[in-house]
Amino acid sequence: MQPFRNHISKEKAIPKIRHYCAYQERTHQEVKEKLYGFGLRKDDVEEILSGLIEEDYLNEERFACQFAGGKFRLKKWGRVKIMHELKQKGVSSYNLKKALTSIDEDDYAATLQKLAIDKWDSLKGEQYLNRQAKAISYLLQKGYELPLAQKAVKGCREGNDPVND
User: At a CB cut-off of 8 Å and minimum separation 6, what does 57 contact?
Assistant: First the structure.
């Protein structure tokens, strides 16, 4: 078996991985992969990982909340899409729930309403049923829940405040 090309010692890996974690919030899975990429053994990886958690370089709850908040605010993602992405990143169900509840309900409703209205308005030339289907489909792709998406589009059709009625 050939040795790893980027094999570095545990002592050299620790400051590198601290910097990696300090630069941006990371999941446990990402940090493990990085450490294994350094050519470290499982025992060393587990020891370094627990040290990072103790020193608060690595905090899955903090990562999940920041990820959820960022994707919601910047990309206007809904809870379904955020939940799926966090699951893909190996975040625990406890921290996943915590992250989703960190999104403010009023902000969520207002964002959904704005997305629905903007999409509805952008489809002005479409036939009614196509317009409705495309608007709902768009909201589902953004990760919003089907009942909320339907209610938002119904409100656009009727010219009401779609979410807060």
Answer: 17, 18, 21, 22
Q: Which two tokens stand for residue 96?
A: 């996943």
pLDDT at 118 over 80: yes
User: Distance (Å, rounded) from C-alpha 157 to C-alpha 47?
Assistant: 58
Q: Is 94 exposed, middle or buried (0-12, 13-18, 19+ CB in 10 A)?
A: exposed
The answer to whether residues 97 and 109 belong to one domain is no
Choose among 62, 134, 143, 127: nearest CA to 99: 62
- The predicted model gives 36-46 an average pLDDT of 91
Of the candidates 110, 118, 147, which has an alpha carbon nearest to the alpha carbon of residue 135?
118
Is residue 1 domain-resident? no
Residue ending a domain, choose from 101, 116, 131: 101
CA distances from 16 to 10, 21, 34, 54, 146 (A): 10, 9, 10, 17, 44
Q: Is 2 a domain residue?
A: no
Between CA 83 and CA 97 the distance in angstroms is: 8
Domain that holds residue 33: 10-54
